[in-house]
Write a structure and sequence with these properties.
This protein is an alpha+beta fold. Helices cover 61% and strands 13% of the residues. It has 3 domains: 98 residues, no CATH class; 70 residues, Orthogonal Bundle (Helix Hairpins); 145 residues, 2-Layer Sandwich (Heat Shock Protein 90). Strands 2-4-5-7-6 form a 5-stranded mixed β-sheet, covered by helices on one side. About 2% of the residues have low confidence.
């Protein structure tokens, strides 16, 4: 915590303390003045004996009792007024404990209560968001797992028919293998993303050449590149970085796979690597369908897939994984895209980790 924040906290505490002292002083002063006024009226009315040495203890006791009564009444009235926001906050806290995260408390009262109410409302907003993300995650993961399972079950039942040709059997078996691989990849990505979201630092770092790692990732995707007759335009500077090599490799595999997936047959994919001061900048571009502004806002969300016709080609976890890895590596990713104009993802990584 900075010195400025500490000073502000101490100042707020001192202000609150002075307010409480002033509050008590005002109650004492008012109760004394009122009790003195009542005693004066009663003495003039002959109800109380005149002030003398003989009756002084009696009158003093009367003044004390009246002051105590009046002070108590004033304290209860004022306390209910000033503590009303706190009572609202206590009631709202019980609602949150029962699972109602949409509760809000009115921002009113002293400056301290205002700050407390604002912080409470921010907390419930965050909790409501987390609860929504949790519900969406359960719903999405159920849907993503259900689709390939239903497909596997359907083609397995078809394989039980005796009238299938050998070619049909091979085709159905290939589909089953493809769907099981998709399930395995999805499970691995979910486990990896879950682990990364509960990690603050990637400790295993090493020096290696980033350009060689990207070339290796491209070689792994060579069958998909040849299948779609895609042309690669590569320009990689030799850049040595310090990072978690295994995690960074996931970034290139996911980005290159997306470029291949959304590129039309016979088109070009560009891959460039440049050093810029203390950062390595990698750009991966394609000539695919591109994205509009609304899609670009959500592409890093879990399970988000803009093109429903391609829902069987992925799980919508790849870019979420990429973003989280880069966050842990102190890197960042940006995207430039337009409908029917392709996309270009640019990754910036610190060279020295």
């Amino acid at each position: 915590m900075t010195d400025k924040k500490m000073y502000k906290i101490k100042k707020n505490r001192l202000t609150t303390l002075l307010f409480l002292v002033l509050f008590v002083f005002i109650i004492l002063l008012v109760s004394i003045l009122v009790s003195d006024g009542i005693a004066y009226l009663l003495i003039n009315a002959g109800i109380l004996p005149p002030l003398s040495e003989k009756w002084f203890p009696t009158i003093l006791l009367f003044l004390l009792l009246v002051s105590l009564f009046i002070g108590t009444v004033l304290a209860i009235i004022a306390g209910n007024h000033f503590l009303h926001p706190l009572h609202d906050l206590v009631a709202a806290t019980k609602e949150v404990a029962e699972g109602n995260f949409n509760i809000k408390v009115p921002v009113s009262g002293s400056s301290e209560m205002n700050r407390l109410a604002i912080s409470f409302n921010e907390m419930t907003t965050e909790l409501a968001g987390i609860e929504k993300l949790h519900s969406d995650f359960i719903r999405n993961i159920s849907h993503e797992f259900k689709t390939p399972i239903v497909s596997i079950r359907g083609f397995a039942r078809r394989l039980k028919k005796k009238t299938l040709t050998e070619q049909q059997q091979e085709e159905y078996l290939d589909i089953i293998i493809s769907e099981t691989e998709r399930l395995m990849n999805m499970s691995n990505n979910i486990m990896l993303l879950s682990n990364l979201e509960n990690t603050e630092n990637l400790l295993e770092k090493a020096d290696y050449f980033l350009d060689e790692q990207i070339r290796t990732a491209i070689l792994l995707l060579e069958p998909q590149l040849e299948k779609k007759c895609l042309n690669l335009k590569i320009s990689l500077e030799p850049v040595k970085i310090t990072a978690n090599e295994e995690m960074i490799n996931h970034v290139w595999i996911n980005l290159l796979s997306n470029a291949v997936k959304f590129s039309p047959e016979g088109s070009n994919i560009g891959v460039t690597l440049r050093s810029n001061d203390n950062y390595a900048e990698v750009s991966i571009s394609d000539k695919g369908v591109g994205m509009d502004a609304e899609v670009k806002k959500h592409i890093f969300d879990k399970f988000y897939q803009a093109d429903d016709s391609r829902v069987t080609e992925g799980s919508g976890l790849g870019l979420s994984l990429v973003k989280r890895i880069l966050q842990l590596c102190n890197g960042k990713i940006t995207v430039e895209s337009a409908p029917d104009n392709g996309s270009c993802f640019t990754v910036s990584l610190p060279i020295n980790g």
